[in-house]
């Protein structure tokens, strides 16, 4: 037993040296847990934020001034006052997403009860801002017109007073969710890539033949790849959480990082076993890349990180319970966002352990049957 542990340890050290000699893999690891996390947290916000807006005020009245002053940060930038001739050039150049044209006589028509129109031009190439901002602009203009007609800032009396309190993300900052979800996705992706690439790299270089003549078993070879690549991903995840998530993005982590790493270890056990299984099917690196795309993309999309699983069809939810990523995302959000303890996430831990054991058995069986053909 002691010799088996020693062999597994030494083979794992060999995997570290092989990884250090691969600069592209080192670059990928550094990129995924630094730049990738930061850009995912900030690049595409879910809500309207600092949308550029310009206003053509041909009316120059109190009502038009109220409408102009109603567009303020953080949803919009302060409006730029332009002339009618500047509308097309500003939209064509992308300087503004929204251009509002308040025609001459607008206030007069509103007060007299005549049909009054405000033209809103939207740059629909900025799809996210255009879709969300259209409703914001319509609501703001209608609210200002109604308040102007009532001659005061309306404060409607509600029959029920709502007391809203946001837990776990008091400022409702979307970057908090994006940053941590990207860490989780990177852990699952790199665990597949590193183990699969390590096995295929040995096959292409011919070093797998050296292992076959050594006094080591197939289980020791597989275990060495699992523990070594898991250590690399865990270290990278810790650095990403501490320096990028907590440091650069200022995202508070409510729960225990060691508990999260325990869950990540179980997920890595499952995903690295799956990576070895895929590497035994693929004949070369391009084939492995194709397998990676058709396997990883559905797992990340349907596991609840991008879209809540509750909004998916029930049969999809049931199928995704077989994927380790679904349970890993559940426990990660519970621990890192809500500060959950082991008494809350033990079900996900148990599910990951069972799935990992099954995948490890299947991978070991496949690896043992195909290693002589590599």
Q: Shape from CA axes?
A: elongated
- The count of domains is 2
Overall strand count: 4
**What's the pLDDT, averaged over the residues?**
86
**Order of adjacent strands in the largest pleated sheet:** 2-1-3-4
- Assembly context of the chains: single chain
The rounded Rg comes to 28 Å
- How would you classify the helix and strand content by structural class? mainly alpha
Q: Termini, distance in Å?
A: 27 Å
Instruction: Specify the helix fraction band.
Output: 55-70%
Q: Major β-sheet, in short?
A: 4 strands, mixed
What is the count of DSSP helices, taking H or I runs of 4+ residues?
A: 15
- The run of helices and strands is HHHEHEHEHEHHHHHHHHH
Uncertain ranges: none
**Percentage beta strand:** under 5%
Task: Kindly list the characteristics that best describe this protein.
single chain; abc type-2 transporter like fold; 374 residues; four-stranded mixed beta sheet; 4 strands; elongated; mainly alpha
Please explain how this structure is put together.
The chain is elongated and about 95 Å long. The chain has helices at about 1-20, 25-30, 35-40, 60-70, 85-95, 105-110, 125-150, 175-205, 205-210, 220-250, 255-280, 285-300, 315-320, 325-335, 340-370; strands at about 55, 80, 100, 120. With about 375 residues, the protein is mainly alpha-helical.
């Amino acid at each position: 037993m002691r010799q088996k542990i020693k062999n597994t340890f030494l083979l794992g050290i060999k995997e570290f040296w092989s990884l250090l000699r691969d600069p592209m893999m080192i670059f990928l690891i550094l990129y995924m847990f630094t730049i990738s996390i930061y850009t995912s947290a900030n690049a595409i916000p879910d809500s309207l934020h600092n949308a550029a807006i310009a206003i053509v005020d041909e009316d120059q009245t109190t009502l038009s001034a109220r409408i102009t002053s109603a567009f303020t940060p953080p949803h919009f930038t302060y409006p730029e006052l332009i002339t009618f001739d500047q509308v097309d050039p500003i939209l064509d150049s992308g300087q503004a997403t929204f251009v509002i044209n308040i025609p001459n006589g607008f206030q007069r028509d509103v007060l007299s009860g005549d049909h009054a129109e405000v033209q809103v031009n939207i740059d629909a190439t900025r799809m996210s801002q255009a879709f969300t901002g259209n409703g914001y602009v319509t609501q703001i203009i209608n609210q200002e017109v109604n308040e102007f007609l009532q001659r005061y800032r309306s404060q409607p009396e509600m029959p029920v007073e709502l007391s809203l309190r946001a837990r776990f993300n008091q400022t409702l900052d979307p970057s908090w969710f994006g940053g941590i979800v990207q860490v989780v996705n990177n852990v699952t992706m790199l665990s597949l890539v590193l183990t699969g690439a390590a096995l295929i790299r040995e096959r292409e270089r011919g070093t797998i033949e050296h292992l076959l003549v050594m006094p080591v078993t197939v289980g020791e070879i597989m275990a060495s790849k699992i523990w070594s690549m898991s250590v690399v991903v865990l270290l990278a995840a810790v650095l990403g959480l501490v320096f990028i998530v907590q440091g650069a993005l200022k995202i508070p982590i409510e729960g225990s990082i060691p508990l999260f790493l325990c869950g990540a270890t179980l997920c890595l056990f499952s995903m690295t076993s799956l990576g070895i299984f895929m590497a035994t099917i693929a004949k070369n690196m391009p084939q492995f890349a194709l397998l990676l795309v058709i396997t990883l993309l559905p797992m990340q999309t349907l596991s609840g990180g991008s879209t809540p699983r509750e909004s998916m069809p029930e049969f999809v939810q049931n199928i995704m319970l077989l994927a380790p990523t679904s349970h890993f995302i559940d426990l990660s959000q519970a621990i890192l966002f809500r500060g959950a303890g082991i008494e809350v996430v033990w079900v996900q831990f148990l599910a990951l352990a069972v799935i990992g054991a099954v995948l490890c058995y299947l991978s070991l069986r496949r690896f043992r049957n195909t290693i002589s053909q590599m």
